[in-house]
Amino acid sequence: MPIDGGDYENKLNTIVAASDDYDLVWTSSWLFKYGDNVNKGAFMEITDEMLDKYAPTIKASFSQVAWNDVKVKGKLYAIPNFQTFTKTPGFVIQKRFVDKYNFDTSKVKTYADLEPLLAQIKQNEPGIVPFGMGKDQTRLSEAYGMQWLGGVDYRLSDPLTAIDLLQTDEYKTHVKLMKSWHDKGYTNPDAATVSDLKPLLASGNVAVVQDFTLAPGSEAGRKADFGGNEVVYVPIAEPTFTGVTPTMNAINYNSKHADRALMLLELLNTNADLFNLLTFGIEGKHYTKVGDNTIKIDDKGGYANNSGWIFGNVTNGYLLEGQPADTWERVKKLNEEATVPALSGFNFNSENVKAEMANMDALFKEYSPGLETGTIDPDKYLPVFTEKMKKVGSETVLKEKQKQIDEWAKANGKK
């Protein structure tokens, strides 16, 4: 059952609250959040016996470090999808503008470094949005020497200390920059309200967007996203291992078909034909083979899901026209070699501060879209936002996060 990305969390929360009947559901550390749903009792525990019987290939394909990353209080409630387990934050820019304005992407390390290009596009390219954003936009923390992992924000220079992002100078700098971009017309005017940026991107009229995961060899796939225009990736930080929780599938706690659900996940991780059917559709109707393992998607075919990372093992998938033949080997190599953050393996458990987190989340949805897209004045609204967050318990939550980090660090020999 397909659900639009912009409505996914709200609709799934409604389904869970109503105890509706379903078997498998996609969950993650960042949307329809895994930990929160485990605390609600929404997902079924997946035991070693279940994995051994119904999904042995999946069990063997992940390291113990990966399985530990998914566990909550020592128990497993979801199956990760095999894709890139790394985070390489940066920007995606249409190649035609990089070439036309001779823009040196190697010098881009922060948002501000994009300004010369954005200014030229605004001045010389009518109808083109220099920098595209949606209401769920959040900053690339690495651009400010920070990182978000395991449910906490921290500075790269001090990874074992949780911070309240809203009270940092870096956050103030960012939202003020976004306000200036909004005022200069560098961003789409509806940024704070648009839930799905895909239609605007598909028009080819967006020059630059940000991306949290510049996956190896995926530029060809982004070409279709940008209206058939080639793109270049501009990473602003080295790849880091961020765990396997960004994309997983869980089983409903009261599913009557848990065995079949696991068997389906096993098939999606072992049967390339099934994986490619769900990911790309039907050969000759939705895509054409242009090589042994390479396809060209028919833009008018009527099925362009191209999101295998939500189903299973992406290395079972076809390559898109233009993707290097060694793309999947590069993904596997990067998974093995990426830098492991000091906080890797830590997952904040919000059970003790559920009420505070719920109230904070409501405030976040009220203020963050306007601040992060530059639509509202940070000088006026950031202090209001921060003060309201304090009143509903942000300082209590921060203390709980720090307490858990300290306990985790002690248990794992971290200093």
TrEMBL record:
Stored Gene3D superfamilies: Periplasmic binding protein-like II
Ranges of residues in domain DUF3502: 343-410
Cited InterPro entries: Bact_solute-bd_prot1, DUF3502
SUPFAM superfamilies, per database record: Periplasmic binding protein-like II
Name assigned to this protein: ABC transporter substrate-binding protein
Organism, as annotated: Cohnella rhizosphaerae
